Amino acid sequence: MKRFTIILLSLILAASTIPALAQRARITCSGSTTVLPVAQATAEAFMNEHPNVNISVRGGGSGVGVAALQNGTVDIANSSRLMKSSEISQCRARGINPTRYAIANDGIAIVLHASNPVRNLTVAQIRSIYTGQITNWNAVGGPSLPIIVISRDVASGTFEVFNEKALRGARVVSSAQMLASNNAVVSTVADTPGAIGYAGLGYVTGGVHAISVNGIMVNEDNVKNGSYPLSRKLYMYTNGRASGMVDRYISFIQSARGQALVREAGFITLN
Amino acid sequence: MKKLTLIITCIFTLLSSVAWAGEIKVSGEMWNRWTMENGTTQADTLNSELRQNFFSLERGYLGLEAVFTDNIKGRFTVDMFSTDALKDGAGLKLKHAYLDFNHLIPVPDMKLTAGLQKVYFGSIYDWDYTLIGKAPTDEYKLANSADYGVTLNGYLPQGWGEYALGLYNGEGYKNWGANLKNNTELSFLGNLRLTPIPGLTVGGSIMTNSSERETLINTGADNAAYNTRFLADGLLRYAYGPISVSGEYMSSSVEYPNVAGGAKDYTATGLMIMPVLSLRNWVGTDLQLTGRYDRWDETDNSSNPNLSNTITAGLNYNFLHNESAVPAMQIQLNYSSRSYVADESGSAYANGLKDYDQLMLQLKWRFSNTIK
After folding, report:
1. For chain A, which residues score pLDDT lower than 50?
2. N or C: where does chain A have the smaller number of CB atoms within 10 Å of the terminal CB?
3. Residue B117 pLDDT more than 80?
4. CA-based nearest distance A220→chain B, Å
């Protein structure tokens, strides 16, 4: 009877353990739409190397990712800006210890329609355009053409960094179109001759051209050394130090192979 | 007439916000509740009987948040309710109407808030109604959840906590103008919360307050009803994974300087402990088990001596989460039992009502949308 009980218990244990072993490790991350292509490309490559891992990547904006980390429903919050003191405080009060990992560099490119001859704007001119004080391209050395202002929605980290570094808290003109993604900004500018927009460097395509700011071009060297005025880092936040597969995934992104994918996605590597 | 004025004010605020604000967010929250209460009465302190059994829209909040610039933001909230004893079956109050000014004072993450706003005392300002009941300082009438005033509030660097300093009327958002009974003394508030390690929150707040006027405005004679209050509150909270436990201790020292010999002076104290357990990781559904223990000791108050113990147990079912995992709907089931220590309490304590058992079922739903 005793032996039968041991065998039975062993079978039950084995039956409950085998599906658990077979189960794929799951990593969830959400947040910044700017970080999204980097996260998607690296997740795909990481899953190819680790078939037992399933990484789910969602957008929504940096604020959404941070809130999801705070609510304990994601492993990684993708963010194109640093977390605010209020967000860190609210996380810590709930027992979440947000820990930051830089995964790429990025420059917020100021993009104009391909036909626009303007090649440089100062930060002050950009602020004047976005606050409605300059409304025609002829005021900044361009053709006599009304300026169409395109911006990101206020929930995006890209908007917050642009707001901090270019607008310095000033209000965007009410006639501006507030769009939900980098792609939407770039494609709208590409289709609108008088338009100005801004987007992560990785999204700049052929239909638009990125101009210099304060005479400094948005390129790898200028972003890495911080001389380009609209430079930033892209981050992943975890609850405490990353461990297990989450740690391996982030380490993969920071590795030479992961950084090659960062470059392929149009962003700038860490080193 | 008063209600009409309020409605006109609401419409005016909405229209002017739409015109000037760069971004406008509309939000709302409704609490539909069924309450059944069994208890003893002053007439019969031995036998329980059904005292309440009703449905209500306990609270309905409609809010408007207008972002004028990155540094100036306004908030406007109307509080609707159907439970107060009004003949027309509904009430309407202004709950919030304030402006936040960031960077007005060059201290990082500090803002100045002016208008009808939160009272940063104890847990009342961030009480999220995990249980249906009110925050303890609200429940035992130590502080109001909102009041007219000016505050400096903000966050410490690196998530180390938050603070607030404030000047208020001191009599809550329901009282203003003539209702203040000529009280000319403002209320002072200080609040500090620290999070030394993730999950552990330690905090405290103090508030000085008074009601009525020290001397009668018509005759200049001493006003016996004038009283001053010193309120203090300590808070301890620990959150780890699916478990959180909060503890709050509060005290209220009331003095009547115009009553001879301090005959009406008293000190009341209270304690609350509240554990919450999230079952989400085990059952795959956003369920929470909650509990709460309250002890309120006002035996020193000669006009209403009472000592009560209250135990509450609750179950929350949260559903329709948004992409940040915030639920749009919540069903709450609460059972509360309050018992008064008869030897320590006066015959007319608790407005003549005695011990009770209460069952409440509540459906809360909320929405939030950026409309501009």
Report:
1. 17-21
2. N
3. yes
4. 30
- Residues from chain B contacting residue A172 (CB–CB below 8 Å): 22
**Contact A45/B at CB under 8 A:** no
For residue B68, the chain A residue with the least C-alpha distance is: A171
**H helix or E strand, kind and range, residue A262:** helix A256-264
Stated pTM of the model: 0.81
The answer to whether the CB of A178 falls within 8 A of the CB of A152 is yes
Judge: A95–B23 Cβ closer than 8 Å, yes or no: no
The alpha carbon of B157 is separated from its chain's Cα centroid by a whole number of angstroms, namely 27
Task: Round to the nearest angstrom and report the end-to-end CA distance of chain B.
Answer: 32
- What pLDDT score does A12 carry? 58
Q: How high is the mean pLDDT of chain B?
A: 88
pLDDT in tens, A32-48: 988 999 999 999 999 99
Which chain A residue's Cα is nearest to B24? A154
Q: Which candidate, B68, B77, B79, B59, places its Cα nearest to that of B18? A: B68
Residues 6+ apart with CB under 8 A from B122: B135, B136, B137, B142, B143, B205, B233, B235, B248, B250
B111 touches chain A (CB under 8 A): no
ipTM score here? 0.81
Q: How far is CA B84 from CA B87, B181, B249, in A?
A: 9, 22, 29
**Maximum pairwise Cα distance, chain A:** 96
Mutation site for A-interface testing, chosen from B323, B368, B369 by largest number of A Cβ within 10 Å: B323
Sign of the dihedral through C-alpha B36, B42, B45, B49: negative
Strands A208-213 and A120-121: parallel
Q: Per-residue confidence at B367, pLDDT binned at 50, 70, 90?
A: very high
B154 burial level (CB within 10 Å; 0-12, 13-18, 19+)? buried
> Which residues 47-66 on chain B approach chain A with CB closer than 8 angstroms?
none
